[in-house]
Automatic annotation (TrEMBL):
Residues 114-247 form the Phosphoribosyltransferase domain. This is Purine operon repressor, PurR. Homodimer. It comes from Melghirimyces thermohalophilus. InterPro entries: PRTase-like, PRTase_dom, Pur/Pyrimidine_PRTase, PuR_N, PurR_Bsub, WH-like_DNA-bd_sf, WH_DNA-bd_sf. SUPFAM superfamilies: PRTase-like, Winged helix' DNA-binding domain.
Length: 285
């Protein structure tokens, strides 16, 4: 087995850590792969940790002991997050998004892989220490965002369905009532898609009154799951909210169909107060 140069080793180690977020990679495995002493690997990890913190990439968490090693927790620096959210506000405010009935077209945003990846990283940064075992979303538009957040957290995704599918096998189903229209509906989740007692993060693209998310929370209680957080790309201003404890990146403050105007502002998410992995050159502002 070849002996790696330090420069090559640093590049490959960084790639391995970032491709396996929240997974502990041991010093022994690194030492064996690169044919290097554990002391040298520890020095390499210190270099990677310093760069990650300074550049706002996240945090390298080290674990001591015989089975020690390091795990990478993706993060984002506040300036970058603010810029990404401001850009999202601008794109959401495009009047061409207005659909009949005052609805907004969002599919192009959720189909933008670069944007979705960045938003998923913000959510993963906020909920980095939540201990989530899985990300849960409801079909269909929120699925790309949920997978992006899950990829940065290194956890699987479970999808709540509005209609039963024979391919889902045995399911748990509950009846729901929407917050605004009071329409009856149902939500189902395959028993095989989520372990009993899992710690769950709910991610969705849009929330109005919160009836669907409240329904998902009730459904997850049937799995004895612990909902450790709720994140949405955008919410809207409503008189009555059925879900209060959540994080939104943007808020649709007003939709004027007649004048074809949309006013969008940053959501309730404050980078400096969330307590996630928020490193970078201005993270101490």
């Amino acid at each position: 087995m070849k002996k790696w140069k330090r420069s090559s080793r640093l590049v490959h180690m960084t790639q391995e850590l970032m491709q396996n977020p929240h997974r502990l990679l041991t010093l022994s495995s690194f030492a064996e792969r690169y044919q290097a002493a554990k002391s040298s690997i520890s020095e390499d990890l210190a270099i990677i940790q310093e760069v990650c913190q300074e550049e706002g990439l996240g945090e390298l968490e080290t674990v001591s002991g015989a089975a020690g090693g390091a795990r990478f927790l993706p993060g984002v620096d506040p300036a970058t997050a603010r810029d990404q959210i401001d850009q999202l506000c601008g794109r959401l405010a495009d009047p061409a998004r207005i659909l009949p009935g005052g609805y907004l077209y969002l599919s192009d945003l959720l189909g933008d892989s670069a944007l979705v990846r960045d938003l998923g990283r913000i959510f993963a940064s906020v909920f980095a220490r939540s201990g989530a075992d899985a990300v849960v979303t409801v079909e269909t538009k929120g699925i790309p965002l949920a997978y992006a957040a899950a990829a940065h957290l290194g956890v699987p995704v479970a999808i709540v369905r509005k209609h039963n599918r024979i391919t889902e096998g045995s399911v748990v189903t509950i009846n729901t009532v929407s917050g605004s229209s009071k329409r009856l509906g149902s939500l189902s989740l395959s028993r095989r898609s989520l372990q009993e007692g899992a710690r769950v993060l709910i991610i969705d693209d849009f929330m109005k009154a919160g009836g669907t998310i409240r329904g998902m929370i009730h459904l997850l209680h049937e799995f004895h799951a612990d909902v450790v957080g709720v994140g949405v790309m955008t919410d809207s201003l409503v008189e009555e909210r059925l879900v209060e404890d959540y994080i939104s990146l943007t808020t649709v403050a007003e939709v004027d169909v007649k004048e074809k105007k949309i006013r969008v502002v940053p959501g309730n998410f404050n980078m400096e107060q969330q307590g996630g992995i928020l490193h970078g050159k201005d993270s101490d502002r």
